[in-house]
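2024-03-11 09:14:02 INFO queue: dequeued item Cbb3-type cytochrome oxidase assembly protein CcoS, len=64
2024-03-11 09:14:02 INFO validating residues
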Amino acid sequence: MPGLLIMLPIAVIIALGFLAFFFWSVKNGDYNDPEMPGHRMVLDEDDDVDTSIKKKSAKKEGRA
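2024-03-11 09:14:37 INFO prediction written
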């Protein structure tokens, strides 16, 4: 029972800390557009892929 009197206030303080962090992140706009990160991985820029393919082919030609 005495352990519960110590752990319960600590748990409440930690929970209030997480709640404060959540409200801070909402205030800063972290949750304004929850769908874009999911679309961002699908809408990747093709330029990055093209340059990496060109670099790989240049390395293969240089070795041959």
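2024-03-11 09:14:37 INFO annotate: The radius of gyration is 25 Å.
2024-03-11 09:14:38 INFO item closed
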